[in-house]
Amino acid sequence: MLLCLDVGNSQIYGGVFDDDTLKVQFRRTSQLRSSSDELGVFFRTLLRENSVNPENIQSVVICCVVPDLLYSLRACCQKYFALEPLVLRPGTKTGLKILYRDPKEVGADRIADAVGGTTLFPGKNLLIADFGTATTLCAVTKNKEFLGGNIIPGVRLAMEALEERTARLPSVEIVTVSSALGRDTVESIQSGLYWSNVGMVREITARITEQEFRDDPPVVIGTGGFAHLFNQDNLFDHVISDLILTGLLEISRLNS
């Protein structure tokens, strides 16, 4: 069995594969001061609670955008699983050609998303929108060329900025809305958050398609924690919540 870990600024998103079957998915709040023991006990307990014997984990693959957590995660894998994890970093085999000016600048999560997309949709141009702490859009050609994309403050980050940097605006629940017009403060924030993201994704998707994929429009994929919020607005051809885990599975195979 393979344990996949996507370590983001807000959450650790993980899953366990038995061959091609995703047996378990889980999320845990990212905590910069988490020790290897805290992480190890959490992972082993979670696996047992989901009827997975921790002793059956044969390999671990990690993509991490929080460097301060990586030492604890590696030590956790070594101590609690007796395994040296595969960490996605520059030089790891991915099957992609990175066309960023400096390929080392591309976040590991964006690379894993792109690998997941090319695995599920071979021979297709892709636009991948990942709604996490930051919202990222990535363009990948049918020849597995990672062209680049966009990085924007995520839905929750925008809401928290309003709460923290204004005197009277409250924290609100992030929800799907139907009306573009809010009739009180909470509705106004919810509507603004929702429709600004809808408009942003539509505009960026249209511009990238026109500039890069005019003759062969891309498959547009939504992923990440907030992607399902936008199901009703037909922003995506597919919403695939576990896209990054699929990418990590493929990366593990490429490097085995």
Word description of this protein:
By secondary structure, the chain is α/β, with parallel strands linked by helices. It has 2 domains: 2-87, 2-Layer Sandwich (Nucleotidyltransferase, domain 5), CATH 3.30.420.40; 123-242, 2-Layer Sandwich (Nucleotidyltransferase, domain 5). Helices cover 36% and strands 24% of the residues. It has helices at residues 36-49, 67-80, 108-120, 155-165, 185-212, 243-254, and strands spanning 2-7, 11-18, 21-29, 59-64, 86-87, 97-98, 126-131, 134-140, 145-153, 219-223, 238-239. The protein has a 6-stranded mixed β-sheet with strand order 6-9-8-7-10-11, sandwiched between helices. Strands 3-2-1-4-5 form a 5-stranded mixed β-sheet, with helices on both faces. Helix 2 links the parallel strand 4 (59-64) and strand 5. Helix 1 (36-49) crosses helix 2 (67-80). The mean pLDDT is 94.
